[in-house]
Write a structure and sequence with these properties.
By secondary structure, this protein is of the alpha+beta class. It has one domain: Beta-lactamase. It is about 40% helix and about 10% strand. The protein contains 12 helices and 8 strands. A hairpin with a 3-residue loop joins strand 7 and strand 8. Helix 1 packs across helix 12 and helix 6 crosses helix 8. The longest helix has 16 residues. Bound molecules: glutamine.
Length: about 300
């Protein structure tokens, strides 16, 4: 296919068919609900910044956001603190796994908002006096990104909270450094709740497109966050969004993205489009195997690499 295919007429079901032939990867089993995911689920969606939405079969199947929520938590924290969140969380890649027990040396801040420590911290900075208020603000904010009222899978939220030992460890570590200023258990509860918000591939593509469109939802027209916030978020997705695979990802796919243990990937090509893919089997870095294949193909076929096209 030429490097200039039109995203509005691009055949996502044909790409889905090619991706289904890829095998490999393992479904996350950190909580029972994720372990039960359908390994053959594969949904794709694209949303251009002028509001054209296209999707494949299964783009309407729900899944929990998991780490794909992190860019949006960062966005809401930046928005609600008027940028002051940047004093409390770093923006440097770690070269380590998403749940590494490590803070920035010298400052005690989480290294960046795309790893667990950082997202626990950014979730704590979203406006709201208590757990319920912050959870409500996050759900409303995510719904504005998606352009419809989203819901939380309470069983997932409960189990993430209950079984997330490393997240509790990170929260306590940040408390001890003085960087986390709400209770450790409350912070993990809010983060777990955010990870358990249910979307489908279409929703997630609209969310990615909103970041790509300077914070304006291209479907509803609502300005969800400021343009400067959107640019900050996409910048950090580009350097940190795929954890210790971020360098390789940007060289190869070249589109800022966020991976997650549910097998979702959200992509945000600034000024062009947002895209999302869900396929649960993950590689050793926690990136969806088929999702990576789909991202590669979209980038090549639609000419999305932010540092230029070749061929
Ligand atoms: N809920 C997961 C956790 O905190 C999210 C991690 C991820 O998607 N990489 O363990």
């Amino acid at each position: 296919m030429s490097a200039t295919a039109d995203p509005r007429t691009y055949d996502l079901d044909a790409l889905r068919g090619r991706a289904l032939r890829r095998t490999g990867g393992t479904v996350d089993d950190s909580i029972p609900e994720l372990a039960r995911a359908d390994a053959d689920l594969l949904g794709l969606a694209l949303v251009t910044i002028d509001g054209s939405v296209s999707s494949s079969a299964q783009a309407d199947v729900g899944f929990s956001l998991q780490s794909a929520v992190k860019p949006f938590l960062f966005a809401l924290a930046l928005q609600d603190t008027d940028g002051a969140a940047l004093d409390r969380v770093g923006i440097e890649p770690t070269g380590e796994a998403f749940d590494a027990i490590k803070l920035e040396s010298g400052t005690g801040r989480p290294p960046n908002p795309m790893v667990n420590a950082g997202a626990i911290l950014t979730a704590s900075l979203v406006e709201g006096d208590d757990v319920a208020a912050r959870e409500q603000r996050i759900l409303a904010g995510l719904s504005a990104f998606a352009g419809r009222d989203l819901e939380v899978d309470e069983a997932i939220a409960r189990n993430e909270h209950l079984l997330g030992d490393r997240n509790h460890a990170l929260a306590h570590l940040m408390r001890s450094e003085g960087t986390l200023r709400v209770g450790a258990d409350d912070a993990v509860a809010v983060y777990a709740h955010a990870c358990a918000v249910v979307v489908d591939a279409r929703d997630l593509a609209v969310m990615g497109a909103t970041l790509a469109h300077g914070g304006r939802n291209p479907v509803t027209g609502a300005q969800v966050i400021g343009a400067a916030v959107a640019r900050d978020v996409v910048s950090v997705m580009s350097t940190c969004g795929v954890y210790d695979g971020s360098g390789r990802w940007m060289r190869q796919v070249g589109v800022p993205a966020k991976s997650s243990v549910s097998g979702a990937i959200v992509l945000s090509a600034p000024g062009v489009l947002g895209a999302a893919v869900i396929s649960p089997p993950l590689d050793e870095r926690g990136t969806s195997v088929r999702g990576h294949f789909v991202s590669d193909a979209l980038s090549a076929d639609l000419g999305l690499h932010v540092f230029g096209r070749v061929g």
